[in-house]
């Protein structure tokens, strides 16, 4: 497995967001970005999808416009709507329309949660047409150069009732992100939480042990994110075991039996204070 | 099976869209178009329905107005609505109304997804009346010469709950599109992706192998569209096997077992680098 | 079975719509119309319900106002609503209200699809009161002489969840329309499609053969309408078998087995070219 | 069983509506009306509930305001709403509020179909308070003398999901209406349809025969209303058997077997022409 | 069981509402009222919950603001909303907000029928905070002294789907009301209906007999309210048995068998005329 | 188990809210607050979650903005909306937006009841971004220093249909609150209700006995809150057993058998008067 670090940004003075590559996600994203192909990011909660998109946007020097999908989101939330100003209705661009006009990367986070009209509205943007018809205005916008669609998706979540339509999926290049190797994850946790490498390694070991459990009792495994949250509590002076109890054990389950079992696992994996 | 290429456009200077006919779809569409009969395009995702309509509109020198159906679409999205301007409500034609006034082809993509009032509104347009009643305006428009309805439909998708009403279906001439022959598909993939014929042939061979699988594990087979997407990544320098992984394998399934099986199929079908 | 042709219109110079009576529908409609009794037209898709109402309206010299029912239709779509004009709300009559004021025939096509408030709103119009209360205006209109309600209904369609309420049904005189005899249907298809009698007879023979099938595989039988559509493609130069494939076989089903069986039936029934 | 005829109206010059009492409905209504108690009319479709209320309103010299309940009716449809006029919102009384102000009889037809807020809104009007709180205006109206609530209800219809709440029912005096005796019904049919007594008696005999059938095949029995409709077609010159076919047989069912059985019953009961 | 009568109102000249206490409801309400604790009234339909609250409000000299809950009620119906006046949106207090400002008793009748947002909105009013946050105005009101919440609830009604949330219930002091003793109920019926004690005693005996039935056939038992309604018809001259038929028997059921059984029970319990 | 009392507030003159710590909730909250990490409070109804947040806000000298979640709450209720003022639409911040601007603690009570868009809207606030995108304004706010999200959650309540999404949960530090020890709870009840320690101890003993029951018959155990409510009735002069009946027994169940059993438990546990 190759581990790339990102190239320094060519055109911007701001520091590159911290991202450590896990597989071939960087090369694949670069190829898709050069072609303008839309990208579908697949991966579990808290594995770094948002960070990865921030890093790629920085590398390409493009603005990043992020929209969090939810089940009440409609196409108007993406495209725009009329507002009443001074007795006139004036049009207000939605985030997708702004990205289309400005050539930005539009990142639709967990788009599958949204109502279907939000996925259909991206169809003509996601094929050879690269167009956004805005029916309410009676116009069709051509996407500016640099515009790219990125959508995220958590396969562990999706039910049969809520999955991307095939006619939507087959317009995307899919990139699967997973959790990093132990060394990379230790590096990330120590840096993000502001703790020493040894403590970070303990947290990563606990994360790996939880990920190795038969998953049936947990809805989802321990993410890098919750290891960083636990590390942060330690950095503020809380004991490691207490931090793990609040940021890992109690977060992963409400079931007293599961909480007890996770606690015993933490006792076994973490160093004695 | 006859393979037609399209006649050059009679009246327009713009280049004809690239379309390679697969069966008798071109003759049938021409007969229906001359008569003004509505057309129902049936076929799987990514087989070229949109391209076909673009090519036919070019041949007949008619404007093409495309509307993507979705489950929240209402008849007002097709017909139009009142907007508030300067304290007055002013009427704004919807895309269907514009097509009726201008004699354009109105292409309703996946109309079956829309709410039923959107299909009922086309009934008087789709029989001998060729009329669009606009209740909100209290008027009835007669369709201009050249107006034609085209709707698309993916039979593999439709559930019992969501299918076209019989009283709607029996107003249309149905044209079924499938995937092209290997030679035609190789030609299309090479041209669209910008890759050499040999690589395109490998991708088409993989597509055929996937289409030959017992389909129970896949929601839908590999479309020409995803073969073009994979080819595009190759054209940007990604390795063929990596491109196939992102644009074909990971797109077709989220199931780890299916992904592994598709990967092995790709290893077997694609040439060693 | 008596076959009436319509009497020439008494007061209008426009040609009478082409309609060939099948049973006693004409006498019954005349009696109901003279009395002002509402009429419920029952019959399958494409058997000519709309044509029949057009012909009767022409005979009685009354305006015909048609409204297509759909599941999102509300009583406001029938009765009217307030619109904002120049800072004032102004009332806009709906099609039912216009018919009540003008003494027209109001034809509610597939009214059972509409929401229940649309059927309740016609109750006082459909009994001895002949009144339309418009709650939003606080007024009650008496129907002008000549006003008549006609609603259509496809019994083959209706589920238990969607059927006319008994308190609605028992206000109507029911007229059942079926498909015409072979001679009449041949006459209709030849005239409407613009083809010779022999080809029309072949299409009618195919329609009869399909109607004679055990219906379990088809949602609905072949209507006169699709025979006319097939004939129209022939009139434009398409071969008879190809026209039947597009306008009949592919329209009646999406199931490959049913499509093959219908195709074999067409091969057997139609003359060899 | 006592049969009352209504007393002549005390104060009005308009003719009393034609109503023939069937049981004790008149005395009971009078007692409830004198006390101002709300009345719940129970009975099948077309048995004369509306006529009965019209007659009672006439007898007491009170205005009758009728509202037809439906499943989309809200309390605002009864109580009133704000409309925009000249840039101001102005309040428009609903029919219930008008009845409360004017001391009229408010007849809510099939109120059980309405949404529950419409039944709750009548609670304070239907007990010792006789008040209508209008939350939108922040006021509470006391009902004018003479105000009385009458609601109708068809017990044969109601499902468990849609029935009156007990806390609503127990505020009403219930009056059950049924079909009249043969002599009374013959009188009603002859008078309303404008036919001779002998034909009316035949129709009534058919109605009685249908009401005597094991009801499992019919949603509801033949009402007096459809006998009058059939008689009306006869008065316009249609044959008795044809009139019965359209106004009775085809109205009562869509099931071919039931239609045939009803037709045979009609052949047996009606006199040969 | 102690039977209190209410103390004369301290500060008001209007007569105290007639209420006869059944258990300890009066002492308990007084203790809760002095403390400002919210009260949950439990009891069957028509047992006098509204009367009881009226009497307590009178005793404490507080205004009583009553709101009837229904399933379409939203928090805006309680708290208030913006209305458009003269081109401005102006805020209109809802009944709960008025009670909070004025220190009134706010009686939410059958609040469990309302949408959940209406119960959540009362949470900060129903604990130590005694606050009403009005998000639309961006303010939080402190309840004026004397403000008290009273909600009613019919345990016999509630399904699992519709019950008060535990986090709501545990903010209330619960007072259960039942039917009064025979003597008290006779007194109430005679006084309210305006009939002699002997007739009232007969009605109360019938009510007790019905309440003693195995309840499975009835949705709810006979309330004091319907006994009063029956008495009222007698006071207007209707026979006792006929009054019972309309106000009790036909109200309690639509089932012919149950109606017959209740009628036989009435024949047995009531005195012969 | 350590029992902390809160440190006196550093910067404010108002008295600290009364809160007695039960476990490590105070240290954990302090660590999370210093870091700005969002906190998820888990615990049963009435155990003191609101009090705890009030105490922590006081300690840190931050404003506390509380929002009660309910199932009709939308993201606009949190973020803000446009209102019409003087013919202009003006933006009104919602409570979350105010907290973000002012650096307050935003406490979302029972957020899981809200619609999913309300939880998604907090995602960018609950990770390293600390941003609130307001799509309607086209802006993104950075949270002011001191801003902290706190959400509460009752694990005993949640169904599979209504639980926090994993991608939401894993952004929070979870703190579980339970009921305090008997000594602490006695102290709390005596102080809050204004009763002597002996009576408070009796109520706490009853609460413990109820919590020790096999829970299947109760939806939730007796909270500290209802013990305080019972104590309050005693402080107003009601007998202890009567106060327990209204504030504990009748509140915990509507089932006559359960009410009787709880009453017998109260008879056994409480001292004889």
Keywords, separated by commas or semicolons:
Rossmann fold, 11 helices, 273 residues, homohexamer, alpha/beta, ATP-binding (chains A, B, C, D, E, F), elongated, ATP binding (chains A, B, C, D, E, F), 40% helix, 5-stranded parallel sheet
Task: Give a brief outline of the structure.
The structure is a homohexamer of 273-residue chains. Chain A is of the alpha/beta class and 273 residues long.
CATH topology of the largest domain in chain A: Rossmann fold
**What Rg of chain A, in angstroms, do the CA atoms define?**
21 Å
The chain pair with the largest interface is: A-F, 47 and 46 residues
Major β-sheet profile of chain A: 5 strands, parallel
What's the rounded overall pLDDT mean of chain A? 84
Total number of helices of chain A: 11
Beta content of chain A comes to 15-25%
Q: What is the CATH architecture assignment of the largest domain in chain A?
A: 3-Layer(aba) Sandwich
Question: What low-confidence regions of chain A span 5 or more consecutive residues with pLDDT below 50?
Answer: 1-12
Classify the secondary structure makeup of chain A into a structural class. Answer: alpha/beta
**Can you tell me the CATH class of the largest domain in chain A?**
Alpha Beta
